[in-house]
Design brief:
Structural class: mainly beta
Number of helices: 0
Radius of gyration: 24 Å
Largest sheet: 5 strands, mixed
Shape: elongated
C-alpha cells in the first residue's frame, strides 16, 4: 500500500511561501504515513516544483523515526527531519520531499512516487554596493550634469 506524504513543523503551517531568514538554519519534517513496506523519505531543495534527483540538492537528515500506524498496525509511518540553511541564492526555490517504496531488491513498487513541495522566500537585509557614484554641477555654465547609474 503506498504511503501518504505531508510536511511537519513550521513549514506545514504555511499556505503559500515559507519566509525564512538568510543564514539561519531551519528544520522541518516529512511524514510518510500508512505505507507498507515503510517508505524511504527523501528531502531536496531545487529550482522547480517537481523533484529531479539529478539536479536537486539532497538535504541533510537530522533524525528519523519509524512507528506503527495508529489506525492499522500492518502499516508503517516514517518521519524524517531535515535541516537547511538558506542563502540569498535560495530565494524562490522549493523545499521538497518524496516517499519511495521499494522491494527487497531495491526496485520501485509504485510508479507514482508521492511528492510534496513548498516554495521558500529568503529574507535578507539590503546589501552594500561596491561601486561609488558621484556627480558634479558646473557653476560657471549652470548646465546640469547627467548621471546614469
Amino acid at each position: 500500500m503506498p504511503a501518504a506524504l505531508e510536511f511537519g513543523g513550521d513549514i506545514a503551517d504555511v499556505e503559500d511561501k515559507w519566509m525564512i531568514l538568510q543564514d539561519e538554519e531551519v528544520t522541518f519534517s516529512c511524514h510518510g504515513n500508512g505505507g507498507t513496506p515503510a517508505a524511504e523519505v527523501l528531502g531536496f531543495v531545487g529550482s522547480e516544483e517537481g523533484i529531479n534527483e539529478d539536479e536537486d540538492a539532497a538535504l541533510d537528515e537530522a533524525s528519523v523515526e519509524e512507528l506503527e500506524n495508529g489506525d492499522d498496525d500492518r502499516l508503517l509511518d516514517i518521519t524524517k527531519e531535515f535541516t537547511f540553511t538558506p542563502t540569498r541564492d535560495d530565494c524562490g526555490k522549493y523545499l521538497k520531499c518524496s516517499a519511495k517504496q521499494v522491494n527487497a531488491d531495491g526496485e520501485l513498487l509504485f510508479e507514482d512516487v508521492p511528492q510534496i513541495f513548498k516554495q521558500i522566500m529568503v529574507v535578507f537585509p539590503p546589501q552594500p554596493h561596491d561601486e561609488e557614484h558621484s556627480a558634479g554641477f558646473n557653476e560657471e555654465t549652470g548646465e546640469p550634469v547627467e548621471l546614469e547609474i
